[in-house]
Write a structure and sequence with these properties.
Layout lengths: L4 E4 L9 H18 L1 H6 L2 H14 L7 H15 L7 H12 L8 H11 L2 E5 L5 H4 L7 E4 H4 L6 H11 L6 E5 L2 H10 L3 E5 L16 E3 L2 H11 L5
Helix pairs in contact: 1-5, 3-4, 4-5, 6-11
């Protein structure tokens, strides 16, 4: 492999996302209990999650934009309670603040620091993580988010947008991510090389076709491979 640039997924590749999402739900619920008790009673956390899932199904045209789906969810929750003026921006800020309080995997920051010395690095995500809030933005040359591109992984469009932004042909980009279908199959079908960060060491699902180029237990192992096979670009 002749790798000239790296794209890397965020959620569940650099940090486990579920703890942050669960805390975001709790913080939002606490705010509603204090300021809009009727909404909190009508839409406790499990019911709000069900509503969010229903919106995702109904608004498949927004499958690339989790933020828009969440705004719609909150508006529907308030509408159902007869409250027309929902403080959507305030609610989103509460949610986003907690959603971006993530705890990185121990190998993530050292890997990012080394990666950006070896190759140009772009983040590539379907989610709405905010690298500026998290404090990792300086490690990335570009940030490619599904909501900005109008296309989500595993569609080729978002991977090709990253290649265009990096100015590198897809076959010379290594995409790094945790999800077999969204990351590995998506990047492979877009012509990229693939590194599966397989922390749980699951076998590759044969039904997804060809295995990734690299099947790695963590990002530290990725750095070891890159150091061995790819000198820093001059």
């Amino acid at each position: 492999m002749h790798i000239l640039a790296i794209t890397i997924d965020l959620d569940d590749t650099l940090w486990p996302v579920m703890p942050a999402l669960e805390q975001a739900d709790r913080d939002l619920d606490n705010y509603l209990r204090q300021h809009y008790p009727q909404v909190a009673r009508t839409w406790p956390i499990p019911a709000m999650r069900e509503l969010r899932a229903r919106v995702a199904t109904e608004r498949f045209d927004l499958a690339h934009d989790f933020t828009a789906q969440r705004y719609i969810t909150l508006q529907k929750a308030f509408d159902a309670c007869g409250i027309a003026e929902a403080p959507l921006d305030t609610l989103w800020e509460i949610y986003a603040n907690a959603r971006n309080r993530v705890e990185l995997y121990p190998d993530a920051l050292p890997a990012l620091e080394r990666l950006c010395m070896l190759r140009p690095v772009a983040s590539l995500t379907n989610g709405n993580a905010d690298l500026q809030r998290i404090g990792l933005h300086r490690h990335f040359a570009h940030h490619i988010a599904a909501r900005d591109i109008g296309s989500a992984k595993p569609e080729a469009k978002i991977f090709l947008a990253a290649a265009e932004r990096l100015g590198v042909a897809p076959e010379n980009i290594l995409h790094v991510g945790d999800d077999p279908e969204l990351d590995v199959v998506g990047a492979r079908d877009a012509g990229m090389r693939t590194a599966w960060i397989n922390r749980t060491r699951h076998p590759w699902p044969d039904l997804l076709g060809a295995a990734p180029d690299l099947d790695l237990p963590d990002l530290a192992t990725l750095i070891e491979w890159l150091d061995k096979h790819h000198a820093p670009l001059r």
